[in-house]
Amino acid sequence: MLPSKASKAWARAAEHPLTIVFVLALGVRLINVALLTGRDSFFAEQDAFGYWALGAALAKPDTFWPTLLSLTDRMPLYLLLLAGVQHAFGDVPRVVALVQAVIDAGTCTFIAALGALISPLAGLIAGVLAALSVTLVVFSTQILTDSLFVFFFTLMLLAGARFLLRPTMGLALGAGLAGGLALATRPAVAMLLAAAVPIVFVIALVRRWNVGPALAAALLFALAAAAPIAPVLARNAVRYHSLSVTSQTGDYLALWIVPLVTERADGTPYQATFDRMDALYRQQAGTESNPFRRSAIASGLAWQEMARLPPAALAKAWLEGAVVNLTAPALLADPRVRALPKPSFYNTPGASLWQKARAYLFDDPGRYQLLLILGLIAMVPFVVLEAIGFVMLARASPWAAVFAGGVIAYFLLLNGPVATPKYRLPIEPVLIVLAAIPLAWMAQRRKRVAAAA
Hints:
- The protein is mainly alpha-helical.
- It is built from 22 helices and no strands.
- The protein is globular and about 75 Å long.
């Protein structure tokens, strides 16, 4: 039977899969950037304005060091990237989007290489899915840390997966350094890196290394991971008498987690609890100027509040947050869609996710809600493919499935009830590879059937 044009195209792509994936991903992202109009298109998320202002301060010689030394609630690497762009090109956020298009295309290439560890076809399909991923494409245009963070984090996953298959000192060093650069971009990965140190040691032992080299590999990983943030840790210790990486924890717990869990517990609107916690925090913090002590005060208030809440409310909030993070369509984050009239999901009344979703979708429907429904429907097959892919991976390589599941579980637990498509980004590389596994199996099966015919 003669091969079809589609099979010929796949065969040619398979000869240079990483190059094909990079070019496709870059082309899709450049087209998307070209279609965005106006400055506001790059500031759809509220945090983007803060990042841009900090980048502008770092771009000026007279404010560089004062800004860098006082920067405790954000990690510096992405802000230094913004500062470099603004210093070279001025107040032009579109240039950042173009730089991030290249970075994100690199991420897609790493995803393809990660999938290729399962099979070459799975790698190619994973790369194509990543190149076309709405989640990756939409957020690559925004002035946010996500594109740079996911780039380094995916590189860490790739090096870590290769270390799992065939450990070497070079892979331990590479995985640690990539993880450290991800940490220098966003603090969310800190606990995962700490947990990875003993895992590196155990993997080396399982692969029949002696204890000495296994310890050396774990130490090398830890030192490489710590190197990019060593200046931040030293600054925090000397200037603020703290060994913490960031002072953001208190605000996250008190002003995000507590209001969302309280809403699940007794139906209190999110904004009401937010205002109450903010007032308590300001009252207790008073004139305290040390941001890490202020964070500790906010954390203490948050833990006191959560201790009063029923465990069922905590479990419900985390479960619902996980569902939203895994299924929320990223199309909603596109600046053209966000510009449509819409209510606030967090301020929508309802004691459960179903009640809030029903009110959000149907109480005052519009084009935004219609796109949300269509996006949710479109997400269903991907979620099914990811679940099937996880089962298939668990059967073929149980350890790989354990680590994939561990990464997904870590970020779902870390995000808790704070749920938007943005918070799916760290696990998007893993989800894409999982979705590619059954697609590769179906493609190979179809090829065998066609060959037999």
